[in-house]
């Protein structure tokens, strides 16, 4: 499926990602800048912080307690914030655009 990562400066990185891996893993495997994933996807670091569009909420898994807690470690968090490692890619997400924050630290 096609996933676009939109950097804070507007640069778009389009990635052909496999279903089943996370939005963080797809970014890391394709060297997308602006997303770190320091903890390796264990919902422990907050450096895979991204923003999702409200219109995509229905096709994304709900936030669980741990994701909400770990987001407290991220910067510039808004109500659109998610941790990319906690979102597995599905067929329904084909064409999704994910925005990346200006900083992860
Ligand atoms: Fe560490 Fe997502 S990679 S919280």
From TrEMBL:
Keyword Ubl conjugation: no
CDD domains: fer2 (cd00207)
Pfam families reported for this sequence: Fer2
This protein's UniProt keywords: 2Fe-2S, Iron, Iron-sulfur, Metal-binding
Gene Ontology terms for molecular function: 2 iron, 2 sulfur cluster binding; electron transfer activity; metal ion binding
SUPFAM superfamilies: 2Fe-2S ferredoxin-like
GO biological process, one term: P450-containing electron transport chain
Domain 2Fe-2S ferredoxin-type: 1-104
Domain of life where this protein originates: Bacteria
Cofactor names: [2Fe-2S] cluster
Family under the similarity heading: Belongs to the adrenodoxin/putidaredoxin family.
Descriptive protein name: Ferredoxin, 2Fe-2S
